[in-house]
Structures are given as C-alpha cells and as structure tokens.
Task: inverse folding
DNA sequence: CTATGGTTTGGGCAGTCGCCCAATGCGATC
DNA sequence: GATCGCATTGGGCGACTGCCCAAACCATAG
C-alpha cells in the first residue's frame, strides 16, 4: 500500500536522494557525484542508494530528468499566459534572469545535456522532453505569426541554453541585452 | 636550449598529454579523466603527468583552453574572409556542420564552460578568450551594418554554443535550419 | 672517462570508488 | 505473542584515485 508508513518513508528517502543528486550534479559535476557523498547529503546510510536505485547513473539520470521536466513545464505554462510575441519572449527571459548560471538549475541543465550525449538511454529521454517543449513553443510562435515556427523554436531553445552556459563567464548577459536580439529573430 | 634532444622530446610528450586530455575530457567528462588513463592514452608512464604539469586540473585546463583558442581563431579568420553579413553567417554555420555534437571538439567546449563555472582561474581565462572572440565578431557585425553589434555578437556566440549542446539530441539541427532564423537577428 | 641535468619509469601511499550483503529495525498482519 | 515484509545500517570487496619519489636513463659538457 502507498499509505504504509514504511513505504511512505521509503518514498521520502527516494525523493531526498533525488534532490541531493540534483544539487551535487550542479556542485561537483555529473561524474564527480559519489554514492557516499549523495547518501551524506540526503542524510541516509550509503547502502540506501543502491537499495532504491539500480545504479548511481540511474539515480543521476532520474533526478536530472525530473528537474528538467519541471522547468520545461513551468516555462511552457508561462508562454501560454503571454498574449503577444514580445511579451512572451520578455517573460521567458525574465524567468531565466532568476538564474545566474552558477545555480543548481542552470548547471544541472548543461550537465544533463553532456551526459545525454554519452548515454543513449538518457539521450532518448531528454530528447523527448526537449521535443515536447519545442513543439509547445512552436505552436505558440505559430499562433502569434512568427515565421518558420519549428525552426525558430529549435534555435530559440538552443539560444536560451547557450545563454545559461555563457552566463557564469559574463554576468552582464541578462535579458535586457539578449531580448532585443532574439526579438528580431521572432519577427518576419 | 629548445633544440636539446631531451628537451624537445619532453615538449612532444607535453603536447601528447594535452592532446590525450582533450580527447578524454570529451569522451569521459571533465571529472572522469584520471592520470593513469591520460598517461595510457599518451603512451607514457603514469608519473609523467605530474612531472610536466603541477596537477591534473592544470593539465585539463591548459589542454581545454588550447583547443578553444584554436577554434576561436579559426572561426574569427573565417569571418574576416567573408564579404557580407549573410555570407559570413552561412560560413560560420557551415563550419559548425562539420561537428555532430558528439565529437571531441563540441563536447570539450561544453565541458570547459561547465568547468569554468566552478574554477575561477579557468573562468577568467575562458572569459578572456570568449571576450576577444565576441569583440572580433562585433567589429565584423558593425562593419556590415548589423544592429547593436556587441549584444548581437554575445547572443550569436551563445546561440552557436547552444546549438552544439543540443545537436546530439537532434541530428536535424543543422545549418540549413538554423541559418534562416539567426539571419533575421542580424538584420535591422 | 666522469659529471651534469633534464626526462622517464614504476611502484607506493593513503584515501575513495561502485556495488554488495548479512544483520537489524520496525510497523502490519495473523 | 509470533511472523512477515519492506526499509535501513554499516562494513567489506577489489579496483581505482591524485600525487609523490627513489632510481634509472641518456645526450651533452668538461
């Protein structure tokens, strides 16, 4: 049963492990996250990692995908609330201004792209999320008269990830400077 | 002297170690490159790594910076040879089509950005290279009448790195689809 | 011939790695 | 009370980690 006390505690530990994994991937880098470090951060014994997850890689992948899906949904919902092209773009970039490129979320995004380039299974899962997000953005672009919605959505998402990748090197790279440039790409 | 046989052999080994480092950073990821793996790939004894370099991190940083500088120079020179805005952009993207996002160069780029977000010294060095490249592109953009050259150059470089980050997940993300979108961002 | 100086080797140090497993804890069920 | 089943612990396995160093190698200088 889901309501069984021990089962629920188990689910909580699973979630704490995933949260710790997301933090540590960003802090140390994907391949520098160890089982003991992970268990320590989650406040559990080292053996629990391999009780709840078949392998360390599986835990990292699951945690990373969860974080990516959450932010993708959030940004997608943000677009649905926007009325015009420029308003949507501004909102999108303003949301990204909350991340400085050194935070858990930004670094985790870059890390999971890299890991996906080396792990086919993770790559397929991440491609699914990315594809869904791009289609969602493409529909929004098409509804507001942007040219070549599919390609524009693809380049827009890549550009946003690229900005987050560059931001730690240039703190000035904020939405105020980025928006006017991308705005031109969205208009015929 | 530089021409001393042993000194020259030493320089060759240094270069072989750097080449091996660039390969392995891309293959395994920055934090999964070990001294023994490195020495093996370079065909030398494990002790040589710490004879030629003060630390493993120093070797990785030096190797990565070398690769980044080389490609940045190459793309900069390519721009200088281009006549118009569109021709330059097309050439830039065509050059990137030679990389599929899973190759040594593309992956190393993403890895070094991530490493630079965690290592201030590497971050400063990489910011120098990135800054120089952006100024070079900005001058070229300004000479050809593009609006807001500085900001456009910043977004353009970020977008190109973002495309390389996404390419392993979507092999269709080639210059043919990217160029028309970015082209709009370069014109008033 | 014997230094000399830089280059190279291979093993050793203390510590960490992923993963495994017998033992234990503990609430639910009978 | 006993028994069951899932969650949890902590130690152990062999392999690997970054870094160090005594010793050997070898072309040149004296």
Result:
């Amino acid at each position: 049963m889901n309501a069984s006390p021990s089962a629920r505690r188990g689910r909580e530990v699973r979630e704490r492990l995933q949260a710790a994994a997301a933090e540590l991937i960003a802090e140390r880098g994907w391949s520098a996250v160890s089982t003991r470090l992970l268990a320590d951060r989650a406040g559990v014994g080292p053996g629990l990692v391999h009780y709840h997850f078949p392998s360390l890689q599986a835990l990292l992948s699951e945690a990373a995908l969860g974080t990516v899906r959450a932010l993708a949904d959030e940004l997608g919902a943000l677009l649905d609330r926007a009325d015009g092209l420029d308003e949507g773009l501004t909102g999108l970039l303003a949301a990204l201004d909350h991340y400085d490129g050194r935070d858990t979320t930004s670094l985790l995004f870059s890390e999971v792209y890299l890991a996906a380039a080396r792990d086919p299974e993770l790559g397929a899962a991440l491609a699914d999320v990315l594809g869904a997000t791009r289609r969602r953005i493409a529909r929004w672009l098409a509804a507001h008269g942007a040219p070549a919605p599919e390609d524009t959505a693809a380049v827009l998402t890549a550009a946003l990830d690229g900005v987050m990748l560059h931001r730690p090197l240039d703190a000035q790279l904020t939405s105020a400077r980025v928006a006017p440039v991308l705005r031109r790409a969205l208009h015929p």
Remarks:
- The two ends of chain B are 56 Å apart (CA to CA).
- The mean pLDDT of chain B is 95.
- Chain B has one domain: 5-186.
- The CA atoms of residues 93 and 175 of chain B lie 5 Å apart.
